Structures are given as structure tokens and as C-alpha cells.
Batch of 3 targets.
Target 1
Amino acid sequence: MLKPLGHTAMPTSPAVTLKSAQFPQPFADGLSYSVLSCGGWPLVQTGLLLPEAHLIFVCPQNCLRGVVLVAAEMKLSQRFSTVAVREQDVISGDMERLTIDGVGEIIDHLAEKPPAVLVFTNCIHHFVGTDLEVVYQTLRQRYPEIQFTDCYMNPIMRKSGLNPEQMMRRQLYSLLTPRPKVARQVNIIGNRFPMDPHNDLYQLLQHHGYTVKEVPRCETYAQYQTLAASSLNITTLPMAQSAGTLLADKLEQPHLFLPLTFCYETITENLKRLSDALDLPREDPAPAIAACEAALKAAKKVIGATPIAISFSACVYPLSLARLLIEHGFNVTKIFADSFIPTEKADFLALQKLAPNLQLYPTSQVQMRVLPKESSGKTLAIGTEAAYFTGTRYFVNLIEGAGLYGFDGIVHLMALLQTAFLEPKAPELLNQINQRGCECLL
Amino acid sequence: MKQTAQIIPSYTGDTSGVCSALYELGGLIVMHDAAGCNATYSAFDEPRWYTQESLVFVSGLTEMEAVLGDDQRLIEDTVAAAQKFQPAFIALVGSPIPTVTAVDFPAIAREIEQLTKIPTMGFNATGMASYVSGAGMAFEGLAKKFVLPQVPKTQAVTVNILGVTPLDFSINGADQALKAVLQAQGLTVQSSWAMGETLSNIKQAAGAKVNLVVSATGLAAAKVLAQKFEIPYVVGLPYGPAMAQQLAAMLIQTSQDHQNRIFCQAVPASDTVIIGESVAALSLAKALAATTDFKATVLCPVDTFPELLTAGCIKARDEAELKPYLQQATTIIADPLYQPICPPKARFIPLPQEAFSGRIYRQAIPELVKGFTTFRRNFGL
């Protein structure tokens, strides 16, 4: 319970019902609140997925502060360095010199030269017109044994082309260098968590003798480079598509976007598309759908009519998940999302008929700061924002699906829901999850 | 080369510093930034975020607004939020990009104040200076904008404590310990800027006879209060019973003769160094020198004032500036995240600070006002 602040009026709830909501932006822009226990993941953590790489952030102090402490909390400070941009650098305008010399100084003092260096510049480089081409050209000449890539922590560009999140997921793959293709090897790219090897994609691929490569499973830089030998890239999240596009151009690897949804038809279609792309026989989805139905039934038996709240960050396709649950008799009452993926329109329209009074809540609107973080009775939450705002101790800690996918993902999720319903978690866990991702990282 | 950090983190920046200073006072605080500053603040710079409401938000500045110099959305969104919350005041806080595009925060503050009739302050934080600068400008702003003139003074020796934020004092009860120690010495605390305090109490600060500056963040406000209300100040912290007694005597003397004084002064020695904010580190050095054989030089990696930079307090901001002093040291008292750049042979005594290591060592941050003796004993000092 937050200690209340005096001298303020209590604003009304910003929630809207599904029947009256606009799609895909149900809420107006305004000042934003930084939600506690967000399901987000700082860029630095994505960069640190690249094994053996050294990360160097060249930013003002206020911008360095968060990323440097994320690395410290992950006990990975030895892979992380900074160059502070100060006011005199902005005034002098010689940001190229600062960046080149600063990065060089750090590399020169490393005990071992890393195979790759990720240099993060930020909003300020963009605004003072830093010639990044000169920066990287010079660094590559000075350190030919090191691969450099340009990364960006520039949230000011979030509404101008690719946002920092999409850029980071793309740049993580920019260091792959062309090599001969290996038979029966496929990449799943753009995910922060390794895929569950039981999920539909893995099972289909492994059943036909394919090796699956993913960056979160790489332990060495050499292993990372083997992704360049794959014959196909699969992405499952919208923000990962830029990585697929990059590698299609750079390495001539075809790209298949097979979205992480909870719709039987879409999952079936996704698996068909994958089979067709690799000339594999199509599999009958009926047994897998039957398994889903059984899992949903079992979960419903345990959870009953308990209200369920879902976060956008839990699965990126919260409307698809809500629709699946509601169509199977679950009582989904709240969705926490600031906006939706445009391809969820069909689910949005379907839910307007199925559950017109389902409430949509923003996560970052100012009113959310003072909204009581409680529920009238037991609530089951999926995702951290839903857990935080409903004040429940019964929640599934899930971020971006956390490796679950397809029919198997649904079966697995139903098991997680039952466990979460029966076993309360310590509320402090939410604070720890904030900025670190899933429980698996704690 | 200066400005590089191979492994150590950055101190909290000035944007967060402003927010930390004003957090508990019932204001609407708007960081004018794209997105990152608020997440950093809530996750790493503000331990009260989890337990105490506040109205600290971010404007969500976009590329086009910055390029076009469009301040209108900032004004409209701030006014809209102010209408929702009816805050006690509004504070606009700068960050790196508004610095580059030269946003005139004081002017925007005047416009918002006219529109809302709510007192509004604009702070030209750059995101490129330390929290000391940010919290300092916030306290200075409070002193200029809110402290009422002609508040009657009582017979008692009344004291304002200036410069209290969790960035220096964490949330381990140090703010309350400060009040209690002064009261135990027969002094009356008028206000504490600004933990466990209200804006209405701060408005009455001119009723104090003397100000106690307990971190460099409070010194600019002390100078304003000295100039506007002729309240003299003493700089220092009462670490341990002996220091409490000495400091109280100095406060009483200062309230009478109106001579500003620096209580915290180190007896320099190159073999022992303390890294930290100037007032806290100097006070620790003084307390150690008074009670043990330890003499220590303070290395101050954040902003401070020239009058605190004596032979016993050296400004050393970057790894390159710190390392030569650390190489000579046999004992180092510092935040644990400094340890990787300290010589392995040196004795390292951990003294975590929120403004450096954030929440990582929060549970181990000692409360030194009442707990100085325990700290000394724990480390055999």
C-alpha cells in the first residue's frame, strides 16, 4: 500500500470498456507514469545476450545511470563500460572525438580484447549531428580484429521509424557474417528468452532433423556466428521483424514471421507456412487442439469464475489470449495495455461482442499512479503490470511469452495458470522483477 | 582519459536529483524527456517509489517536438495533469535534449503558473551533472519561491536541516535520527528539507535561527536563506555523540554571531581515502579523526562547493582521476561498486550510497548519525 500524498485531488479511473474503446490506441497521449514492476526489459539486457561482446554506452550521466546499474545488478559490469557526455562536449560539438577516444580508451584497457563491441549512442548524438559513419569507420580501422556495431539508446526516436526496441533487436544480428549454409538448420530470432524446446516450432523442426539456433542459447561468440549458416529465420514477435528483414538482405536468409498468438486457426496456419517453407509434410493439428481443449478445461475447473487480468507485456497479443480464455468460459475482466498490435483487430472486434464490458486499463497514464492497487476479491493476473495494478499475489510472471508458443504454449500456460491460482507469490517479487525480466533472471 | 568508466557506474544525475528533493512535498513534477529519465528514476534513484505516492511524470518528448521547438504539448499535458491532481506546486525539470534545444523552463513555468494559478518552478537540469546539482537547485527553488518572510522567531534555537534526500541518506531512518540528535542537544527542528516534511512547514523556515546543511545539496538553499532572511548556516553532520555535542555548540554559536561555519573538515592523509559526497564524507573523516587514529582524505566524485574543497577534500570525478589516489591508499572507505578499481592490497570498507549503487546494497547502507559507533566497531576502526 502506497503512503498517500497530501494536497491532491483524486482523479477518476482512466479505464474504458471494450465496447467504447478505440482501436488500436484506446487512450490519449499525455504525461506518462513509469509503472512499477513493468514487464519491460532495458536495451542493455538485450545487448548483453550477445556472448563475449563488450558494451560501451556513450551518453549523458542521467542516461547512463539506469543501464550501468542493470549491468551491475546482473553482475556483468565487466562486460560494460561508459563514456560520459558532458555539457562542454555538446557545446564544443566534437562528439566524434569523444566517442572514438572514449571507446578506444576503454578497449585499450580491457584485459582481453572482445570479439565484438556494441557502441550505444543516444538522443544527444542525433541532435548534435554526430557523424557516426566517421566514428565507426575510425574504430574499425583502429581495431580491425574487433567487430563493431552501432546500437542506439535514443527513446526520442520512438515515434520516428524503427523505435529503439526494434533497432536493438535488429542490431543484435548485425554482426553475423556470411558463411556457407548448413543443411537443416533454422534460426528463431528476435526473442529475449530462449524458446521452450517443447513448443510447436521446436517440435516440428526437430522431428524433421533440423537444428534450431537462438541467440539466448549461445554461450560463445563463435556459436553466435553459426546463426549465419542457417537457411531460414523465424520471428514470432512484431518488434523482431526488423531483424528478419536485415538478415534476409544481408545473409539471403528467408524470413518467416509466425506471430505468437493464441488462436487455433493462426497457429495452424503458422505451422503450415513453416512446413511449406521447408518442404515438410503438413501435420494434422487435431491432436494438438484436443490437448489444448483438455488443458483449458482442466484449468477452468480449478480457476472457475475468478476474475483474470492480462498485461500486454505478458504475451504482446493480449486480445488473442483474452479471446481464447473467454471463449472457454474464463472470466477475463481487465486488460492492461497502452495500445495494441494492429493485427489484433479481429480479436478486438470479436471481444467487443463477447465481452463488451471487459475493462481496458492503460499502464502509463498519470491516473494509474494513484489508482488503488487492489481488487475486491481474488484475482488471477497474467503478467507483471496486471499483478501490480490489481494488487494480487496470484500471478503468472510472463514476459513476451517467455518461450511459450503455439498449441504447446497454450497447454503450458494453462498449467502455469493453475499453479499461480493455487500458490500465492510474495509481492516483493514484483519489485525484483522490475528491470530484470522474468523470475528466471532473479 | 577523463569521462570514461571501465567498470564503475554513474552517480544519479541532476534530473533525478530535482525529483528526489521535491518528492514528498505534494507537487506535480514533470521531467521533460523522451522516456528514459523516469524509468531510471523510479527503478534506481527513488527508494520511496515503492512505498510512497508522488506525482513524478515524464513528458514523452518526441523528435519532432524537439526539432520544431514545440513546447505546447508539454504545457497542455502539464496543465491537464494539474487539473486532475490539484497539486501544491508544479516543477518542470530539464534533461539532455531540452538542454540542446535550449528550452526556457523558467518561461514555460511562468506560462503554466498563469494558466493554472498553481505555483510553478522551472529547473534547467541538463542530465549531464550530478544529483547534487539537481537537488541543490530544487532546494534553492523552494527557498526562493515558498519560504515566507516575517515568520516570528521563538526563544528556542530553531534549526532548518537542509539537504536531506534518500540519495545521500537512504531510507534507513537517518532523516529521523538527525532530528532526534539535534533535539537531544536542546535544539528545535523547524523544518527538514525534504524527507518526512511538508511544504507548509518549509514555508515557515524563516522562523529558524540557524540552518544546518547536511549535504552539498542544501548549500545553495542555505545561501538564499542567509541572503533573504539573514539566517546563518553550519555545514556538517553529527556522526556519533561527540560530534553531535560539538555541532550543537557550533549551531548555537552561529545562531548568535551569524558567522557561517564549516563543521566538517578532514585531517588529510594519503593512506586512507573516503569516496563520497563532500559533506557526508568530510563529516565521517572528522568523526573518525576525533575518535580513532584514522586520518583520511576525501575524494569527492560529485558536484560540491569551492569552500568544501580543502586540502582534505579533493574533487575526483572519473576513474582516471580517482585511480592515482586509490593506488596510494592502504584503506579505502567507499561504495562497494568502487572496489573493482581499488588495489587488491588495500583494505576496503564498504559504505554504500543510493546515489551510486542504487538499490543493490540498500540493506547494507549504515545509518551513521546514531549508528556511527556501531559502524566503527563493525569494521574495527
Target 2
Amino acid sequence: MSVAAEAALLAGRNTRRFLRSPQLLGDAVAFPLILLLLMLVMFGEVVAGSTEEPYIARLAPGIVLFSVAYSSAGTAVAHHLDLRGGLHGRLRTMPISPVSPLLGRIGGDLVKFTLVTVVTVAVGYLLGFRFRQGAPAALGFLLVALLFAVIFLWAALLVGASVGSAESANTALTTPVTLLLLLSTCLVPLSAFPDWAQPVIRLNPLSTAHSALLGLSWGGPVLTPVLQTLAWAAVSTVVLAPLALRRSMR
Amino acid sequence: MTAAAGTEAGLGNLVAQGAVLAGRNLRHRATVEMAVMFVVFPLIFVFGFLLLFGRLFDARGLDYGQFLPPAIVAQWMFTVANTSGAASAADRASGMYRRCLVMPVNRGAIALGRIASEAVGAFVAVVVISLTGHLAGFRFHGGVLAACGFVALAVAFALALTAGTTAVGLSSGDPAAVATLLNLPYLALIMLSTAFVPADAFPGWLEPVIRNSPVSVVIDALRSLASASPSWVEVRGAVVWVAVLAVVFGVAASRVFRRAR
């Protein structure tokens, strides 16, 4: 079998496990929706005065990105349990590529993130979020969200293979991801940050992907933020993927 | 059974054994991870939120550096309580709780040990956040007495919440499930309060709910105690709320406590 076919098979296994667990499914879908509603009532009035777009236009893409980044913690835990539970050991005795289990994990999670994005955007629509740039841009919105997911998925696989327990796999990712959310343009526009912090905030992967999503839905620059996000995904793949693979083989 | 009674009954045993169990709870908690959290968490939340909202609120005439730290204190009091609930669940799962019950250990000492160790944890947290807040411009303007009131109210709030999370933890016995279960009410209560955003910034229909949430009442009292002219009416309201929570959660916890094995 080719690597692609092996990875697809394992991705199917991971997706089925996800879809058949009401708890995992509920967590993945309910968490972004609760966050979307809470943050809309919390920050809507404060931020709305300082931007031209309605707050939901900024918040909905922000919540999509945050839930994708945040659920990389779930990826790390699942990968950790696969390694500890012996699934990887068993797969390694079989004539398949050593990369396939990792690609299978990533493929399964991309399916999950597609679902999360679609549901969050659908609820956002009820609250006033709109795609003003047409259908191809809406498809681009989903692709950028998935491209963004790749950045955190490689980090999650590395963390899952490196930590001692499922618990620490979780905390090792949720804390930095929460910090990245606060220091990004997902919740407030760049101009709300102090001038000295703006260059750093602008390069945060959540900010670059958020600019791209905002451009593809409400309107605004698209090419530069997409290229920046692509660069983040490329760096993550080149640097973290070999490390994740090596750690997982041990 | 005089020998057994001699080792477990009486006020002296209650205090001595409570201290031993409190020490054990604290040592259990004293990991490198926890130490890192004690340093990183206040920095992330104080400076993260300050960067995020400082400018927006300054434009509205609100000194966010003074506004925010009491909210981070309340947020961490929730964390203390939730961690404690998971620890109680772990004690039941591991058999530690049952072992205390079969040994000549004063029943009250188990509860006292938990209360004492959480009080220490909450106290350290309040001090750490106040110091971090100091860097962000947070000051106690109301004098030493008001500052002591600030610390006492925060710790009392943490202990009242801990009674509730202990009831949940002891009745479940699954630390991971308890941690997840407690996370949701915590998130909703802290976000739907005046913690990060003043009440008038919420939609009008939601404002009465936000203003009267016990979390808002406690946080506003903490802010008042740090201000130049503490309002005793606000503080009294918070004290009443904390007392009510302590009684309700305390009764629930002691009922679970008696039945748990």
C-alpha cells in the first residue's frame, strides 16, 4: 500500500473513534459555540466602537482558529495514548511506512476541524457573520483554517510523544495556546495593542491566519497573511515533523 | 477502646492530625509543574489581558491595571477550588480516603487538612498575583487593614468554593472527569461577571444578571478594598454571599463526606 492509502485508513479509524464518542464530539463542537456566545456578549460592546466591521465578523474566525489550536491538546493526548496503549508498537511490526500513523492522526483531525469550522461558521451566520467575498473565498476560508491547523498538529504530535502523562500533554498545550489567543488579533484589532507590542502580535500565527480569514469573509488583504500562514505551516512541518517522528519511534 | 479514642478524639488530635494531612496535601501539590504554574499563570493573565484590553479601556477612562488583578485573584481562587476537587477525587480513587477512615484518624482532621492546605495555596496565590499586579500598576490605596481584608475575602471565597468542589470530587472519585466537569461552570461564571469587563459594557438585558452574580459581587468588593475609599456596603454584600456559599456547599460536602467510602 502507498503511504497515502495507509494514512487514509488510519485517519478513517481515528475519525470513526471521534464520531462514535458523544463526549469527544460534544466537547469539540460545544466548546467553540459556548466561547463564541460568551465572548460576543463580553467584548462586543467594548471592541465594536474601535472597528469598522461588526464584532461577530472578527470573533467568528477567531473562535474557529482558537478551537482548532486548542483542540491540538486533544490530538496530543490521543497520540500519547496510542503510543502508550501499544497501537504504534503493533503498527510498527506491520509492513507499513513509519510516517503513516502520524499522517493518519493529522488526516483524522483535519476532518474533525472541518466539522468544527462548519458548525462555528453556521452559528456565526445566525449572529450576523457573513461571507461577503463569494463562494470561492468561503472555500478558501476553510482551506486556510486547515492550513493553520497543520502548524499546531505537528506541535501536538511532538508534545504527545515527549510528555510523561496524558494530563501534562494537555496542560503543555492549552496554556501557550491561550496566551497566543490573548496576544493575537482574534479578539481585538491590532491598533488596540500598545505600539511596541504590535510587530510581535502581527506575526503571531493566530494573527496571520486571522487576517487571512477576515479578508476571505468580511474583506481585506488576503495574499500576504495567507503567505505568512503558509510560512508558519512550512516551518512547523520542516522543524517539528522530523522531531515528532523520531520521538514517536522510540 | 480507650486506646483508640486516645489517638483520635479530642481537639489536640484534630489539630495535630489535621496539620499532618495538610502537610501531606501540600507536599503532593509541590511539583515543578505547580511551581511553574505559580509563576507563569499570573504573568500570562495579568499582562496578557492588560495588553489585550489596556488601550481599549484607557480610552473609556478605566484604569485597567487597577481593575484587572482582583479579577485574576478570583479566577485563581476558582483554580484552587477546582484543583482541590480533583485531588479529593484522586484520594478516593487511590484509597487514601478509605485508609484514613480505617485508621485511628480524627474524621474532622481529614476536612481540616483539606481546608488548611487550600487556605495556604490560596494565600500564596493572592500574594503572588498582588505582587505581579504591582508591576502592572495595581496598588492597595486603602491602607493595611483594607489590604488584609482583601486577602481574607479572597481566601474565604476560595474555601467556600472548595467546599463545593470537594462535594463533587468525593462523590465522583474520577479526577479527570471532575476536572472537566468543574471547568464549564467556572468558565461561564468568570466570563459572565465583571471580572474582565465592567457590567455596563455587557448588553443591557444581561447587565442585571452580570451585576448580581456572586462572582461579580466578590470581585467588586475586592476592587473596593484595594481602592482609596473601600465601600463597606459592597464588602458586606460579598461577605454575605461567601457565607451563604460556604453554608450551602459546606452542608453538601459534609453529607458526601459522611457517605463516601
Target 3
Amino acid sequence: MLESGKIDGKQFTVLVFMFTTGSSFILAPSMLASEAKQDAWLAAILGVVVGVLLAWLYHSLGNLYSDMTLVEYSEKILGKWIGKVISFLFFTFSFLLAALVLRNMGDFITTQFMPETPIKSIHILFLLIVLMGTRLGLETLARSAELFFPWFIVLFLLLVIFISPQIELEKMQPILEEGINPVLRSSFLIIGFPFLELVLFLMIFPYVNRPKEAGKALLMGTWMGGVILIVLTALTILVIGADQTTRNLYPSYYLAQKINIGDFLQRIEAIVAIVWFISIFYKLTICFFVSTLSLAQILNLKEYRMLVFPLGMILIVLSLVSSPNIVYLASVVLYVWPSYALTFGLFIPLLLLGIAAVRRYV
Amino acid sequence: MIVILGTLLVVIVIVLIEAPSLLKKGLKKELWVFGILLLFGTGLNIAQGLQVVIPNPMDWINVIYKPISDFIFGILR
């Protein structure tokens, strides 16, 4: 095996959790409210339910070949050449995802904190830590995630507690004003935007030391991350209303700006930023790790670490090119992404599972 | 000019970090892949630094997947 590290079920749960919250922590509320308005929380719940079903699909595929990664068994199931083509497409999917996640991060910093710094330098700085994490390997990464996990939870709870006095239940009404269709449209967006991406974990599955735990951990992590997204979306709608949520690109950040306890405890929006940096770091590193590992396995290399820096250089350019501006991100990337992710997150796993089942029982 | 020099400097550092251990272990194929990717990355970075227009892969994906998104959002309308 290329990667010698082993992680346990708990660490795997934390990684899945971080990945699910990832960039969605700050982008999901506005994305959901754009179609579903005040029913965004309903769309989030629906999305999480589908997300758990998807996690269950990956769990059954992963358990079928519990000592191989997606790239390895797609070659085994589909034959050498078709398998390699599919794996290569999978590599482009994870690499493009890494570029977009890096771009989300750069957009956030340039619009909220440092408007005059060139976005490229922020990308380079953030990517350096990611490259370091990838070179250190999966085990180190998982352990550090385990350390950060309590911080994440504590800071998130602080946000929930401090903002709860401002909840106004009437902002949620009327429920289902325009029927169920806007809710379905929104939940399609959130299914594509973190949940179909969970397919990347099929590359990490074999590195969990007890294969039985891996499936459970995947389901558990998806649930926990999903609950965070539901709570966050509901809070945004309840406190700042559907209208403001749609108009803001980063409503959860705006939400934290509204915290005001007795005119004393205020302007603590940095906690949201910190929570988000933690989770987006893990999302980006997992995407990048999976890209590197899958490319190395497609080409049958004996090592993957030397690919880290060259791919990093390509990623910098790709992140600048792939979503030239925020309008493009909102109108093209977010619109097309769910169907693109559907190919890799649903179609390919189902195809592999189907063919493997036919081969096994016929 | 400074873009080209800066990029080349970074490339030299990367080669100094990675190449010796690959050479010592005699991993020829790995060295080739490393070299090709690094060359590609260098080219891209210099082109980007000189503000050459680089094609956006998201545009290609948009061409292929926009009809599918149109269809799915259409039936939910």
C-alpha cells in the first residue's frame, strides 16, 4: 500500500464530520435560502437524510472491498483500461473540488478581512499548510483532527448560545408558502455540495484499521456534520430572516456579527471564522490527499509524496482560474455542481456496486 | 520577468527537496511523473503570472452538465 498510516474509527468519524461541515459551514445557509427562502431548514433536513442514505451506499461499496481504494477496485471491477479512465475522471473531480474549496477560502478572506491583499498570496499561504499536512500523511492528519474536534464543538455551541436570545420564531413562517418544489430544489443543491462529495472517502476507507468500524464511522460523521448544518441554517433563518440570508454571501458570519449580550459581549464573529478555518482546512487537505493518492495509484507509482508540490503548483493556478469571480461561482459553479457531483457520487458507485454484485453472484 | 524568476526559484527549491531521495531510491518512473507535472505546473504559473488567458475547466463542465441541471431544476419548478 502507498500510504502506511492507519486510523481508527473515531478519527475517521471526525474526518468525515470536518469534511461535511467544511466549506458548507459558511456557504450552506445562503445557498439553501436562495431557493427555499424561510423553509431552508426543511431543505437542510431533507438534504441530510439523503446524505445519510448516500453514506450508506458508500459504506456498502467500501465493505465489499475493504482492503482496496476506489481506484484499485474500479480497475478490478471494470477491467484495466475502463477502470483507469473512470479513476482518472475521479481524480479530476477531487482535484477540481480542491481548487474550488481553496477559492471559497480565498474569497472569504479577501471580502471580509483583507480586501487589499492579492488573493493569490492568501491561496499560497493556506495551501502551504495543506501541502505540509498531505506530506505528513493520513495518520498525522487524523490525529490533529481529533485534537481540533472539541474546539470546533465548543466554539459552535458558544455561537448557538450567544445568538439564541435573538431568535424570532415568526421569521420561519409561513411554512411551505410556495409548496414543496423550492425546498426540493434547495435540497438538491445541498446534496451536491457537501454530501455527494463524501464519495472521496472511498479512497480513505481501507486505511481504517477495523473495516467494520469504517462504515459506521462514515454514517456517524455524516449525521453529526448534517446536524450542525441544520442547526446553523435554522439559526440563520430564525435570527436574520430569509431575506437577509439570501442577500448575504456569508450569512453565518453575519449571524455572529449580530451577537450582542448586554452591550458588552459583541463583535465575536471571529469565532465563526476560526471554526470555519478548521473545518475547511480538513476538507481541503482531504480533497488534496485523495487527488494525490488517486493519481499515484492510477499511474502505479510506489510513492505519492513527491506529487504533492507539483500538484500544489497546478492547484494554485486552477483555483484562480476555475471560478473567476463570485458571480460566476453563484450562477455557474453552484448551479452545475450538483449534477456534476451526481455522476461521481451516485452514478459511478452504483455502477461499480451493480457490476460487482453481478460478478459475485452469477 | 520577476514572475518567471520567482517561479523558477520555487521550482528549484522543490526539486532540491524531492529529487535527491527519488534518485537515491532509484525510482525512475516516479521521477518522470514528478518532472512532467512540475514542468506543467511551472508553465501554468508563469502563464498565469504573465496574465495569459488560461482555459477554465469549469466552462467545459458547464457545457456538458448544464442541460442535466436544467432538466433536474426544470422538473422541480
